[in-house]
Amino acid sequence: xxxxxxxxxxxxxxxxxxxxxxxxxxxxxxxxxxxxxxxxxxxxxxxxxxxxxxxxxxxxxxxxxxxxxxxxxxxxxxxxxxxxxxxxxxxxxxxxxxxxxxxxxxxxxxxxxxxxxxxxxxxxxxxxxxxxxxxxxxxxxxxxxxxxxxxxxxxxxxxxxxxxxxxxxxxxxxxxxxxxxxxxxxxxxxxxxxxxxxxxxxxxxxxxxxxxxxxxxxxxxxxxxxxxxxxxxxxxxxxxxxxxxxxxxxxxxxxxxxxxxxxxxxxxxxxxxxxxxxxxxxxxxxxxxxxxxxxxxxxxxxxxxxxxxxxxxxxxxxxxxxxxxxxxxxxxxxxxxxxx
Length: 340
Ligand code: WQD
Fold this sequence. Notes:
It is a single chain. The protein has one domain (about 5-335): NAD(P)-binding Rossmann-like Domain (Rossmann fold, 3-Layer(aba) Sandwich), CATH 3.40.50.720. The strands form four sheets. Strands 3-2-1-4-5-6-11 form a seven-stranded parallel sheet, sandwiched between helices. Strands 7-10 form a two-stranded parallel sheet. It contains eleven helices and 13 strands. The chain has helices at about 15-25, 45-50, 65-75, 90-95, 100-120, 155-170, 200-210, 235-255, 270-280, 305-310, 320-335, and strands at about 5-10, 30-35, 55-60, 80-85, 125-130, 175-180, 180, 215-220, 230, 235, 255-260, 270, 285-290. It is α/β, with parallel strands linked by helices. α1 (about 15-25) packs parallel to α2 (about 45-50) and α3 (about 65-75) packs parallel to α5 (about 100-120). UDP-4-deoxy-4-formamido-beta-L-arabinopyranose binds near residues 178 and 218.
């Protein structure tokens, strides 16, 4: 029986990683999860097994550790590709603890690139971020839009990460620049699990709606946008997950290194997100407009033409479906009294 190509998924128990594992299995791959569970829960693995009716191989290790990873790779035999999600992703925390971010985000990527070369692994997909653009002059941003000086150590680790890939993996790599990932799998079995108080908008909205948070603070309504609040390109996490499968399939045929924006191509404001959530949940959200949050850019959204044509990938869902799925996930979490 033909074995299914093994794909190493670092951070595979995390928000985007877990949703990508589902899509990898659906596309006929064998994902092998590497996760130190510093920002995810082990019960997500059980959920993934239930959701996909599969047993999923995973290792509870820090992928920065070259010796440990080398041993795992030796035992796995043929590895067809690596998808590297593992990274810390809090902008504010990166400002407070820059060394933790440089060590982990760049250190783990450097280790994974070394392993890819040592084991001649032909395909490498790296999770980058629209953060690399900063506040672009021209919108929507294309992949040729120049990077601005990073606003945070987190953003800088993504810029350096992209350069590491370009310098060290001349062939067989795809860099995906995520816009704002939101939502959850429609089953309600997997979703976003913020560590403590959510930094990002959508989990804060759902936690406020369910009563975990008293009030949503909207950071500024004095921006130069239609309703004064910031615009972002919110992309359903399942759409984002599918872009990773498309990237592996692209690398089956193309031995180059390529970069793609992964967004919907539309910008929505914070207040539009609040109003849409109220409409889908039939709830009145308790929120207050407060001062701007430092480090926030005014607006960004993607030109996704390149991914649409070259990866044959396009986002299928909008903010309505994503907010419905995010809310369903929050309700399921509460029902099972599972803490995030
Ligand atoms: C969105 C908007 C806030 C919370 C994040 C990650 C970044 C990247 C993209 C992965 C902003 C406003 C938020 C709240 C609010 N992810 N907001 N009240 O900052 O665009 O970037 O996603 O690569 O790493 O940081 O997302 O959800 O934090 O903010 O008003 O309680 O919502 O001001 O305008 P952001 P976000």
